[in-house]
Design a protein that fits this description.
The protein is α/β, with parallel strands linked by helices. It folds into three domains: 28 residues, no CATH class; 152 residues, Serine Threonine Protein Phosphatase 5, Tetratricopeptide repeat (Alpha Horseshoe); 217 residues, Collagenase (Catalytic Domain). The protein is 46% helix and 9% strand. A five-stranded mixed sheet has the order 6-3-7-9-8, with helices on one face. Helix 2 packs parallel to helix 4, helix 4 packs antiparallel against helix 5 and helix 7 runs antiparallel to helix 8. The longest helix is centred in the N-terminal third of the chain and has 28 residues. The radius of gyration is 30 Å and the shape is elongated.
Length: 411
């Protein structure tokens, strides 16, 4: 709002005859039409910017309708305000006005043919409306203009997955994580170990495994047993919620071999030893193939309240069924990654959110952090999809597991 001095000055300008000099201290300008228009244009531009910047602040606070109102005013003052159209498009996306967002992004593109972010935003809105062909075209254009933005590849990959172009989705996934991995993140074992495992006295898992494996203060006297449920049909679980259907799938020989090989490779690297058994009764780690739960391809749960501690591991086959492991041709790449990830949980490795466990803090990794992937730690959700790539624990994972369970003593 103008203060009284500015109002009086503005009124005075329009009361002066054309061509009359205006004195401002020791300087003067002429009240010609061009001079007056120039002052007016600057004032309008400043007002448009004011509403735009106030809209940005409202958007940052999640006040999207108020932000849209301010962007409307900015555009009314300056109909060529490219940034205002773009930000209004983002705000409309946030309130699910996808048609309105598409209109704003289209205006940005009309003003600037190289506005890759407008193509990207319009692609997202088209995708939300189920207009997959238009969305794919916009993602392609955005990547053509800016081929180094990993997020566009991720969203195009999700769209390709939806239209069952799994080969294209896999290529986009791998390209995205290659771009993101260029932004290095320094990780330590503290980012991977559940806090209760760092303070071993407070960990039911640590106590349970030590009791079962007869830890004598130096090494383990008995192997940790694991069981793989090979048959399909119902199975019993005392620690899964009753609301969950307890149905499993018969697993392939390749899946069984991959699980056995994972424990066999891990055995000489840490002091825990492992042995497969044929019954879940008494097994410390029990593994089942099931359907996804709430779009989660795997999870782990533990019986930490009873005297006989054990954990259950669940994994599923997801949509990428065509991409199989080179050395295990009946096992999908994603399922192999999930199996190793959940075995990591079963041995005390952790991430911040989405893991289904309460034992995490802000110091554990965010599994969705795109800068971190399965080449850094198997506890990330971001995995490269290559049939010939080994799915196993990373060097940092092994270091963390050794911190908890010790180095192999060859006993």
């Amino acid at each position: 709002m103008l203060n009284k001095r500015k109002i009086v000055f503005a009124i005075g300008l329009f009361l002066l005859p054309i061509g009359q000099p205006i004195y401002l201290g020791s300087a003067s300008i002429f009240s010609s039409p061009d001079a007056i228009y120039s002052l007016s244009a600057k004032a309008e531009t400043k007002n448009a910017q004011f509403y735009y910047e106030r809209g940005l602040k409202k958007s940052d606070k999640g006040i999207y309708k108020g932000a849209i109102s301010d962007y409307n005013k900015a555009i009314e003052i300056n109909p060529e305000y490219e940034d205002a159209y773009y930000e209004r498009g983002l705000a409309k996306e946030s309130v699910k006005d996808y048609e309105g967002a598409i209109s704003d992004y289209t205006k940005v593109i009309q003003l600037n043919q190289d506005a890759w972010d407008a193509y990207y935003g319009r692609g997202i809105s088209y995708s939300q409306l189920g207009k997959n062909k238009a969305a794919l075209s916009d993602y392609n254009k955005a990547i053509e203009i800016n081929p180094e933005d990993g997020y566009i590849y991720l969203d195009r990959g999700s769209l390709r997955e939806e239209i069952e172009d799994y080969k294209g989705a896999t290529a986009d996934n791998n390209r995205a994580f290659k771009i993101f991995s260029e932004d290095k993140v320094q990780l330590s074992i503290n980012n991977l170990i559940a806090p209760a495992m760092l303070n071993k006295r407070n960990s039911p898992m640590y106590k349970g495994f030590n009791k079962y494996a007869q830890f004598n203060g130096k090494t383990y006297q008995k192997p940790i047993t694991y069981y793989v449920h090979e048959e399909g049909g119902k199975f019993k679980s005392k620690i899964q919620p009753k609301s969950l259907k307890r149905y499993s799938y018969a697993i392939s020989d390749d899946t069984q071999k991959f699980i056995d090989d994972t424990f066999s490779k891990l055995d000489p690297l840490i002091d825990l030893d492992f042995k497969r058994v044929n019954s879940p009764v008494g097994a410390m780690i029990r593994i089942y193939q099931v359907d996804e739960l709430d779009d989660s391809p795997g999870w782990m749960t533990e019986d930490k309240d009873s005297p006989n501690y054990y954990v259950e591991v669940y994994f599923s086959m997801n949509k990428y069924k065509y991409l199989k492991m080179k050395n295990y041709p009946n096992l999908t790449v994603d399922a192999a990654f999930t199996i190793v990830h959940e075995i990591g949980h079963a041995l005390g490795l952790e991430h911040r959110e989405g893991g289904g466990l309460s034992q995490y803090t802000k110091f554990n990794i965010d599994p969705y952090d795109v800068r971190i992937n399965n080449r850094s730690t198997t506890m990330s959700y971001n995995n490269f999809k290559y049939a010939d790539e080994e799915n196993f624990f990373t060097e940092l994972d092994i270091k963390a597991l050794r911190h908890v369970w010790g180095v192999e003593k060859n006993n």
